[in-house]
Amino acid sequence: MKYKDGVILAADTLASYGSEARYKDVCRLKKVGEYTLLGGGGELSDFQYLSDQLDEMADEDWLNEDGCFMGPKEYSSYIGRVMYNRRSKFNPLYNQFVVVGKKKDEPAHLMYVDHQGTAFEENFVATGFGMHLGIPLLRNSWRADMSLDEAKALATKCLEVCFYRDCRAYCKIHIGVCNGTSVDISAPIPLNHFWGHGAWTEKRLEDDDPTATW
């Protein structure tokens, strides 16, 4: 989501293998170039493939040595064309991407791109189950003049709800921040969660008498 001085991006650290929560320390955020941050959901190998393509672009950009570097608008446009091209060949990259960034004094940029090449700009977006669970929270609470701490708190709240409600979510997250001068990705942050609700822990009647009915 955008905030007063830039844009932030957050994702949990889980990479699933089918229904198995296989890898629990994966960073699904990636710094691209000098001013851009990429977040990806979906097929991790496709995310890694596109990441390698973007690294090659960033290296070529640096080798020009002209003092001009691509920003989030250029990278998001490229990713959108790649995704649409692969879709048109019936060989899509199975991902949903969020491309964010802020280049110096330019306005913050945030774009959503999916496996079909659908791409649009917004003030806040979510992928996967976050579209259903997080977007309502963002619609109710997001403001254009939010501070960084307020934006982080809102992103954390959205991911807490996703962790409670989505069995493919996890209780550790990374938060990335782009403010026009730097791109930073945090160390893994544990989410607060509580599972000791009485309705889940109280002894049930049928535990003593399997033939009993409610």
Automatic annotation (TrEMBL):
One Pfam family hit: Proteasome
Keywords: Nucleus
Protein name as it appears in the record: Proteasome subunit beta
Origin species: Durusdinium trenchii
